[in-house]
Inverse folding.
């Protein structure tokens, strides 16, 4: 006598196949979602880095010396390098979520002083900027 | 004799689970695709903004160097010829160069391209004052322009004057 | 020994109940995954909107100032009961001065362009983007400092240096 398949067995088969398909698609979609969160966070960090570097560059153009620049940006001075730490909201802070390094150099053949600005998040460089000014730029005072 | 169905009765309709699963997969796929597309679009905009800022400061640095060279040439020689100043600007890659004598001072104007797009430029105008004046070099204009700036774009519809 | 007639039907009911339980469990977990995906999408979308607002506002202010940097052309003042960025320009062939005011009014960043001598109310400005507050300060060294309040999207700040500045910049 032919064995009759129960409805429950077929339902179970359908459930298994559906679960398998759903799991495969969920794995792919979860990967996409995780990547979108990473990209979004990085984009936000780069945007903040750009404007922080821009403000630092403008302060460099206006300041008379490194000491004044350090006081304006609220950073730490080590020789010709100024380091400013920022928190999540890109406000100057002691805890370094983000870090801005500004290195000043003087062109010996001209009266131009240059600053190399680099913003990092501790792991990678978010943004770099080169800025120049004509007026003499002294050391720390 | 009645034919027996080969399958038993299901607890609920066959296919309902498949339909539900298909809907779930579609929704999840839509959310994930929209998320990644939105995030990547934002990333591209951030990158573009960063590139524009770098290009602006590169042009600004080039203009600073040219202004410094002009100042050194102006202070180094007695009344250098305008042609000498123009050569200096040309060697520095300046475009739209104009030099004029104005009441004893030399008015210098030039522009530098910002980035590779060819749309934006940095337009600079300087006044070089004669010896004894302070300051010797004074910037008059130092602004970013887009090609077409200065033209009046009239997009109004023509109206019958009556 | 023959099986009892009700036993088959009972076993089928048990199987059906088990399948139904599994189905319910699967549905709940699947809906949970979907809800998690939706919340991630909302978070990403919210972050993108926030970053877009911050980037647009600061880029706009920076570009506006850089497009106007000339002797006495950029200054800070007050308009509509709040700080305003004031840009002055003249066009070739005319001595008439035109002013552009950038300010916040009624939770919107606005831009108002008018000829010198014309008085306009703050609601006349073209709406650019939503912004809670804008503060503009110009120091003696020529540093133009902007502080922005985006409301729920946080705050932002930007400093620009005016290379061409005359002593006592004028404002209408």
């Amino acid at each position: 006598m032919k064995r009759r398949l129960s409805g429950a067995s077929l339902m179970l088969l359908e459930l298994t196949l559906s679960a398998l398909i759903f799991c495969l698609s969920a794995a792919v979609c979860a990967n996409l979602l995780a990547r979108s969160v990473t990209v979004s966070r990085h984009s936000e960090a780069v945007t903040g880095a750009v404007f922080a570097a821009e403000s630092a560059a403008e302060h460099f153009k206006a300041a008379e010396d490194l000491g004044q620049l350090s006081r304006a940006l609220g950073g730490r001075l080590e020789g010709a390098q100024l380091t400013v730490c920022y928190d999540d909201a890109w406000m100057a802070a002691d805890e370094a979520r983000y870090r801005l390094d500004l290195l000043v150099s003087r062109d010996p053949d001209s009266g131009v002083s240059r600053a190399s600005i680099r913003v990092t998040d501790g792991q990678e460089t978010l943004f770099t900027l080169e800025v120049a000014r004509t007026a003499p730029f002294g050391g720390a005072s | 004799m009645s034919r027996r169905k080969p399958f038993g009765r299901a607890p609920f309709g066959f296919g309902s689970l498949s339909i539900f699963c298909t809907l779930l997969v579609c929704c999840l796929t839509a959310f994930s695709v929209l998320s990644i597309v939105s995030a990547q679009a934002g990333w591209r905009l951030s990158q573009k903004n960063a590139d524009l800022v770098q290009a602006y400061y590169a042009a600004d640095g080039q203009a600073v160097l040219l202004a410094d060279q002009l100042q050194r040439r102006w202070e180094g020689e007695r009344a250098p010829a305008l042609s000498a100043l123009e050569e200096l600007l040309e060697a520095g890659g300046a475009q739209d160069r104009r030099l004029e004598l104005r009441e004893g001072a030399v008015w210098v104007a030039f522009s530098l391209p910002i980035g590779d797009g060819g749309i934006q430029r940095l337009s600079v105008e300087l006044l070089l004052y004669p010896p004894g004046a302070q300051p010797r070099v004074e910037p008059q204009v130092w602004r970013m322009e887009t090609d077409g700036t200065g033209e009046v774009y009239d997009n109004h519809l023509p109206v019958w004057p009556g | 020994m023959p099986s009892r007639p009700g036993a088959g039907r009972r076993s089928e009911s048990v199987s059906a109940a088990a399948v139904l339980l599994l189905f319910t469990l699967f549905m709940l977990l699947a809906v949970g995954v979907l809800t998690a995906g939706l919340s991630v999408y909302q978070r990403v979308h919210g972050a993108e909107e926030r970053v877009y607002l911050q980037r647009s506002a600061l880029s706009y202010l920076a570009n506006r100032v850089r497009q106007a940097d000339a002797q006495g052309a950029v200054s800070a003042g007050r308009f509509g009961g709040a700080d305003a960025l004031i840009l002055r320009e003249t066009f070739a062939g005319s001595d008439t001065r035109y002013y552009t005011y950038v300010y916040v009014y009624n939770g919107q960043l606005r831009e108002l362009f008018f000829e010198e001598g014309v008085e306009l109310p703050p609601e006349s400005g073209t709406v650019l983007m939503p912004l809670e507050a804008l503060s503009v300060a110009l120091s003696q060294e020529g540093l133009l400092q902007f502080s922005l309040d985006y409301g729920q999207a946080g705050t932002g700040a930007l400093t620009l240096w005016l290379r061409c500045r005359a002593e006592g910049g004028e404002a209408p």
Observations:
- The CA atoms of residues 71 and 77 of chain B lie 10 Å apart.
- Chain B is about 45% helix and 25% strand.
